Amino acid sequence: MEVKLKTTGTEQWYQTITFKLVTVGLLILILLIPLSMVKSVIREREQTDQQVETEIMEQWGGPQIISGPILHLPVYYYTQDKNGHIKKTKKWLHIMPDDLNTEGYIEPHKRHRGIYETVIFNSQLSINGNFDSLNKLTIDADEVDWNKGFISLAITDNRGIKGKVDFKINNQLFEPEAGLISTDLATSGMSVKYPIDPQLISEKINFNITIDISGAKAISFNPIGKKTNINLVSSWKDPSFNGSFLPTKSQISDKGFEANWTITHLNRNFPQYWIGTKHSINENQLGVELYVPVNHYQKSLRSAKYGILIICLTLLVFLFIELVKKKTIQLLQYMLVGLALVLFFSILTALSEFLGFAWAYLAASASIILMVTLYSYGVLKDKAQALWVAALLIVLYTFLFVLLQLNDFAFLAGNIGLFVALAFIMKASTKIKSTNSSQLN
User: Measured between alpha carbons, how far is 399 from 379 in angstroms, rounded to an integer?
Assistant: First the structure.
């Protein structure tokens, strides 16, 4: 015997299941408008946070890139014009160090401005090594002015230089000057005039530099030595090693990190010395970023992206209750429940600015679950059904929180969750058919 849905002559088109489904679907689409407005507010708050970060960096110093020291010598070329006049052209010979060793301790701090915070750092660097004997150079120039040589240390942002800089060359202390005499390789930093005795070019030039540099977010180095060794230590427990080279050795714990890089001249794309601007030293940087795990704005925005899922599943539960349990739920009541679910993301963002994301999530979800549960009891007049709504919301918000904590497996976990949710919805939908098919033709 064929089973058919029973309809009565008094049933109007607006009382059908199809119309109810379409109406709830349109309501969900309408709720996308306030949800998108909440997302816009979150993005605005995040942009304000980034603006504050930029302002602090402008005052304290931004990400720092250290290059050097580098030895520079002026060289000259002579050409004769048609009138027999000699024209003298000056260029700079740039010599990279033979050995370059850097030891650094990075001390991180969190700087606050109102409710916003930025990670800054102070670093104590000790740079030592040597330049190989200059008599090994093969220079394609008419003249080398040994007396006008200088040694530079390029720094991205000079505002980060704190206190006195000890700049020793061959155990002799020199006073560095601000700026670079030659800007072929970098545009900012410090330099030391170092005249070279032509009779001593067979000797190595040793250097030892001690400097305190502050900055924000990241510190990087150009491995310009024939052999470069960099060792960094910090109490920051969430480092992100960036650049062209990962550390040769690294150790990360709750007490901080220690990382070591060992790079040779064979790992880069420029020679030990050249004239002019033939090569760039900025192609193979390495360093560390003081990584901040996904901040509360990013987590709030990610959670809002799942908002439509929570709204759909919750309203579907109300729809099934209405159809299966023969309860009457008005369109306005669907709308109020949906708005309460949208409000969760706004409350979450506001509270996270003061409580941190985890506690804000707990407070916001508990408030919305309690409100929707009490409202459900008032509408349905059924304690058991209201508890089912509460259980659903607890599961949804718990699943969303777990999903936000995942990084690599978030996509997989989300799809598994959607599969399980769809399976339950399909199972629940069979109740609608059996309920409306209680009478047979």
Answer: 26
Q: Which two tokens stand for residue 147?
A: 């007396």
Q: Which residues of 98-115 are buried (b: 16+ CB within 10 A; e: fewer)?
A: bbbbbebbbbbeebeeee
Q: 438: how many CB neighbours lie within 10 A of its CB?
A: 9
Order of strands, edge to edge, in the sheet holding 161-169? 172-174, 161-169, 205-216, 116-131, 99-113, 227-234, 256-264, 249-253
Give the torsion through C-alpha atoms of 106, 111, 115, 116, to 10 deg: -60
- The b/e string for 242-269 (b: 16+ C-beta within 10 A; e otherwise) is ebebebeeeeeeeebbbbebebebeebe
DSSP state of 143: E
Q: Which H helix or E strand runs over 391?
A: helix 383-405
**Secondary structure element (H or E) that encloses residue 192, with its range:** strand 189-193
Through-space distance between the first and last CA atoms of the chain, rounded to whole angstroms: 8
What does the alpha-carbon distance between residue 1 and residue 434 come to, in Å, rounded to a whole number? Answer: 15
d(CA 408, CA 411): 8
CA angle 64, 68, 74 (to 5 degrees): 130
CA distance 279 to 281: 7
Q: Quick one: tokens of 132? A: 């190989």
| 227-239 confidence digits (pLDDT tens) | 999 999 999 988 9
What are 112's strand-pairing partners? 117
* Distance separating alpha carbons of residues 96 and 228, to the nearest angstrom: 11
Q: Position 70: which residue type?
A: I
Show the beta-strand stretches assigned E in 81-186. 86-95, 99-113, 116-131, 143-144, 150-155, 161-169, 172-174, 177-178
Q: Check residue 170 and give left, alpha or beta (phi > 0: left; psi -120 to 50: alpha).
A: left
Kind plus residue range of the DSSP H or E element containing 429: helix 410-436
CA distance 110 to 383: 49
Pairing of strands 227-234, 99-113: parallel
290 closest CA partner among 351, 209, 214, 367: 214
Residue 72 has pLDDT above 50, yes or no: yes
Domains of the chain: 13-48+297-436 (no CATH), 62-293 (2.60.40)
> Quick count: other Cβ atoms within 10 Å of Cβ 72?
22
122 - beta bridge partners? 107, 214
Q: Is the pLDDT of residue 58 over 60?
A: yes
Mean pLDDT calculated for residue range 8-27: 69
For 158-174, the pLDDT digits (tens) are 888 888 899 999 999 99
